[in-house]
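REVIEWER CHECKLIST
Item 1: Sequence provided? yes
Item 2: Single chain? yes
Item 3: Sequence as submitted:
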Amino acid sequence: MKLLYKILLWNIVIVAVCLGIGGYSFINFVFQTSLERETKQALDESSILQFAFETAALNIPSRYDVLQDTTIEEIGYSLERGGQNNGTRMLHISDEQQETLYLGDGFEVDEEFLVQIPNDSKIYQLREIQGRYYIHTGCKMKALDRVLYLETLKDITLIYEERKEGFAVYRRVIFFVLLCATIVMYLICRWLTKPIRLLTMATRKMSEGDYGYRARVMSNDEMGQLTTDFNLMANALEDNIALLEDEIRTREEFIGAFAHELKTPLTAIIGYADMLRSRKLDEEKAFVSANYIFTEGKRLEAMAFRLLDIIVTKRLEIEKQRVDTKKIFSYLRELYGGYSQIKVMCQYEPAVVLAESDLLKSVLINLVDNACKASQEGGKVEILGRKQKNGYLFAVKDYGMGIAEEEYDKIINAFYMVDKSRSRSKNGAGLGLALCVEILKLHDSHLRIESKLGEGSCFSFVIPWKEVNGNETEPES
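Item 4: Structure as written out by the authors:
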């Protein structure tokens, strides 16, 4: 059952119960009030009849010492007829032995009630006789040395009928009220549950793949806050899905590029190896074939090691130490000092940084290798080191072909190469910058790229000043 109908049903049940209890209590209160009034009136009438009977008995001529039964019957008849204007009173008079002396028409004697009548007070009870309701009163009285019992029946059927009619009318009123309340509460419940229906629709739309669908905020209450939070969750979910899709696409591109990078050298290696195996070559051709197999094999080896480095750095927790930048730049000067085709220059300011020395060297070596590959023969590559307020700046600058701005975000992906033919001719696989990015993340840094087509590029990063063993890293004096 829908929440709308559950709320509506419970409201109707609660309203019906409240109206039922309230109506029953009110009508029963009116009935009890009327019944008490009629009972008091019946007792008062019983007292009046007793007084009238005793007065009539005293006015009888004193021919007899004892009141005669016939006289009693006459007085009873006279008293009953005297109050017969509305036909609601009946009398029963009995003697000391509880033998009937006068019995009004329709009066049914209750012997058990008669024996309960006390000497000095009146009693009453409610009785139902042939579908009608009466107040039955009884009392003892004395007349000319005789003890008599006087009983009366007062018809109160009318107040029972009024109660019955009141319940009938109230049931019709309740039905009409519940009908109106059902319509009103249905509209209110639909209005209150509309945000839930909108959220349900939004959930269904998103489950069908429409991740851009959002629920409309209807109010500023808790439901409105829930809708707002749902939309925020949907935004986060959509962003995560977009990231996952980008990651999947990147992995597919990575796998495709990796397969292509393997296929090219393997094809050459297999071809030259088959040539060496299937035919006898002269010494020069055999050397060329073996040299090509060796070169392509080393290229595959380097690519495998760099892939392994990328995987390792993503899972690595490094232990940083104080590193003297002078040693870093001395190492790079020795490593690239023998280059004949590209001139590699180092300019730096001495300082102490907090880093992992081998990984930092790997970043700079990859950047310098890329700069050399991007430079023309006889070009120049500069390796720079500068102290800044927030950390130590490393930069590698070349004056080669440059990179278009739209390529900045792509070149840090594995196997992506701006100029694929040029990179492959220099044994490049597009893994260097991807490795650099992962290493710099471990050092709380990031790679910054500045480049112009035809003018060259500058790759830089900053190692922040930090404390190690209570001592802050800072430039050397």
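Item 5: Key structural point noted by reviewer: Residues 217-315 form a domain with the Helix Hairpins fold (CATH 1.10.287.130).
Item 6: Recommendation: ____
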